[in-house]
């Protein structure tokens, strides 16, 4: 029996099921992992390994993309 | 320098990438993505600057910039707008590199919110770190020939001095220092910030700059798409004028029609 994990994503509290990979977590948020960049506890996770890294309780994520800017 | 055979062969190269358009446009402050895309098209720009920001996780289905401006057709140049320390800028660009998959980036480290003037100590520090990490930073800076040289020595792939504060539209305030930077640089020099109208862009090009980067001058024009066209024409006109080599200035008149044969 896996327990839910408490994480922070872009400053908001979220819960995901235990055993979730970072790629799955991004998908659960409704985002395409191929169009964002993910930072976990201040370390960028290479896109190629998003599926192999497991979400852990207490993780702090920043998920970013490109927006208009000068 | 030798003038190109034709205007079409007049390209410029930054970090091994060659471009024909000498106008780089921002993608901020537009009323809509549609207007933004139309302005980019009208400007002829081959490079656009973009910012790196949090995804809105409460509403992930919002339209995205990449739906309207295709990063496969136009080179996205990620910036560090809003960063006030070297660490913030480096963190932002590490994410940008992962989001985009490329190392050509625009570095700007700001000193304060009121003037958005660059903090050159932090900018130089960030440039050194980014180059060590394999980035190719085009660097926004003050219009100071010594600072520009220091950035180049630190590995900046382009020097981008301000013409005037970001978003001010005041035009190029110090033509002398911009020209000194151009003369001293061995990497491309682009005026970044301060352009307000087409003649400002032409001035930058007449000073020998390799290009001009602007956002607000187009986005806040009454008709941004028309202004984008104007800027394209101005950058081309300024470049051609620079290559042609302007006439000397005189203090008094010199008639264009012959004096001989006057009746």
Radius of gyration of chain B over all CA atoms, rounded: 20 Å
Structural Rg of chain A: 12 Å
Number of helices of chain A: 1
Strand order of the largest sheet of chain A: 2-1-5-3-4
Structural class of chain A: mainly beta
Helical coverage of chain A, percent range: 10-25%
Beta-strand residue percentage of chain B: 15-25%
The residue ranges of chain A in which pLDDT falls below 50 over 5 or more consecutive positions are none
* Strands of chain A, total number: 5
Quaternary organisation: heterodimer
Q: Averaging pLDDT over every residue of chain A, what do you get?
A: 93
Distance between the termini of chain B: 45 Å
Categorize the overall geometry of chain A: globular
Which secondary-structure class do the elements of chain B indicate? alpha/beta
The 3D shape of chain B can be described as globular
Description:
- The complex is a heterodimer of chains A (70) and B (263).
- Chain A is mainly β and 70 residues long.
- Chain A has one helix at 22-28, and strands at residues 4-9, 12-17, 37-40, 43-45, 60-68.
- Chain A has a five-stranded mixed sheet, covered by helices on one side.
- Chain A is globular.
- The termini of chain A are far apart.
- The mean pLDDT of chain A is 93.
- Chain B contains nine helices and ten strands.
- The interface between A and B is medium-sized, with 27 and 39 residues.
- Strand 5 (60-68) of chain A pairs antiparallel with strand 4 of chain B.
In short:
With 70 residues, chain A is mainly beta. Chain A has one helix spanning 22-28; strands spanning 4-9, 12-17, 37-40, 43-45, 60-68. Chain B has helices at 33-43, 65-68, 86-100, 120-132, 145-154, 175-184, 198-206, 216-219, 224-244; strands spanning 12-14, 17-19, 23-26, 47-54, 75-78, 104-107, 136-141, 158-161, 190-192, 211-214.
Descriptive labels:
heterodimer; A: 70 residues; mainly beta; 5-stranded mixed sheet; 1 helix; globular; B: 263 residues; alpha/beta; 5-stranded parallel sheet; 3-stranded parallel sheet; 9 helices
